[in-house]
Amino acid sequence: MKKNVVVGTNIIEYTLKISKKSKSMRISVYHDGSVFVSVPRFMNIGFLIDNFIKKKAEWIISKQKHFKNIGPKVFIKKTKAEKRLEYLKNKEVAMALVERKVNEYNKFYNYKIGKITIKNQKTRWGSCSKRGNLNFNYKLALIPDNLANYIVVHEICHLGELNHSKKFWDLVSKTMPEHKALRAELNKIGINYQ
I want to staple 161 with a disulfide (CB 3.0 to 4.6 A). Which of 14, 59, 98, 168 is the partner? Predict the structure, then answer.
């Protein structure tokens, strides 16, 4: 369901998605500039969503401008078959890259690592399970090397702290002191980078 909200001189159009799985509101901005708002099933949506979008308006508009400046190729939507082919093409490359980086950085951290898996995740660059398994998005093979390094270190550090506490960020800082700038750069390109 498409809706819009007026923020100053800007009109932000968005598509509302009611999700059974969502526990909180979430905004996504895609490469074509479209905005999606996911909300929990039983939320009183109208007033809350408008306020949420107004608070996030500066971020939404900056993301839209960023994607527009990147160039027209990011606006081309791929079919499921094309996305699958891209995943299969880059899966092995991503695995080799990730294994090398995990081995390199874990020489410092020395954590016990379980299984490493490359996935086609829609919303995450990586994840870490309680069992010590590390999952990474195949798109690590497509992004700049310094950003891939940050993602690998981020997930390795979750083996020590399975949260985003100060202790966790202190761990990250030991090998990635510039992690804030890298995280900001990663947020700019977005998970839908292609």
Answer: 168
